[in-house]
């Protein structure tokens, strides 16, 4: 392999090439680019974290229709916020979005503190890069960003070694981002950096032949595009098992339990979970002695970022159950409540047929 010395381009050269490319090939009609406000930009930036634009667009539009401003969001119940977040994943983002809206209302008189990078970064769920993106995109003031797309562009362009999560590597990337960020056309520049990483300098198959920096890119010169950025050192993903109780009453309603506010599926509603059949049966004996168990559905796997969860749905039918306490809810699939549901639970409820203890036809296993 021939070593290639990473050359730092003059900022004016970098900016000119990038913006010329963006003017022709960039994305200019995304929903959050219309009627730009700190609120709309903020919601879009949080939704776009680790999520593709095509996935986010319908969620963003539904969210804006229900919560058109920060006051509406702050005044809502968390359940309703998580209901609109269901299926988008990484639910801590939705909880933090709700918390941040209340902080903006209570501590900033309903106005986002876009005058201060530190104040923005101090809101729940907002880090340095997201704060910079909100400020740049909503006010046009110079602010530096370093999201996943920008990291990928810069590590490839300069052949930056090491996992970007390491402090020394991250400092190097922030210095490069600072070097290239202009004082003019900041809105377009920050969008262009994100677009370049999302549409050309992609993780899997980058289109180097269409890139305005093809001739200057260290990774391209070495033929090592897929090597950069270096991945996080991996640990073996553990596998856990759980039984999910699908307890239906005579009306076809299903018993749900709200998860703790932090941790797995924090604040969402889920089916009661048990480590084994003995603990599940003990719970039924205590709370639903008349319950009738059916054959368990096929086990399926739900993959999280740090572990795999093997879920076995266990249907049961009960003719009578004492009124449930706070934190429990009888969910009617025919008239679903506006509550946040864990993704695999939502799939199970959609597959469940009322008044039956059998797996739905065509579902050898529950949907993932």
From TrEMBL:
A GO term, aspect molecular function: 8-oxo-7,8-dihydroguanine DNA N-glycosylase activity
Annotated catalysed reactions: Hydrolyzes free adenine bases from 7,8-dihydro-8-oxoguanine:adenine mismatched double-stranded DNA, leaving an apurinic site
PANTHER family named in the record: ADENINE DNA GLYCOSYLASE (PTHR42944)
Enzyme class, broadest EC rank: hydrolase
Gene: mutY
Family affiliation: Belongs to the Nth/MutY family.
Alphabetically ordered keywords of this record: 4Fe-4S, DNA damage, DNA repair, Glycosidase, Hydrolase, Iron, Iron-sulfur, Metal-binding
Protein name: Adenine DNA glycosylase
GO biological process: base-excision repair; mismatch repair
Signal peptide positions (record): none
Cofactor binding note of this UniProt entry: Binds 1 [4Fe-4S] cluster.
Location of the HhH-GPD domain: 47-199
UniProt keyword Iron, yes or no: yes
Alphabetical list of InterPro entries matching this protein: A/G_AdeGlyc_MutY, DNA_glycosylase, HhH-GPD_domain, HhH_base_excis_C, MIG/MutY, MutY_C, NUDIX_hydrolase-like_dom_sf
Family annotation (SUPFAM superfamilies): DNA-glycosylase (SSF48150), Nudix (SSF55811)
Transmembrane segments: none
Role played: Adenine glycosylase active on G-A mispairs. MutY also corrects error-prone DNA synthesis past GO lesions which are due to the oxidatively damaged form of guanine: 7,8-dihydro-8-oxoguanine (8-oxo-dGTP).
Necessary cofactors: [4Fe-4S] cluster
EC number annotated for this UniProt entry: 3.2.2.31
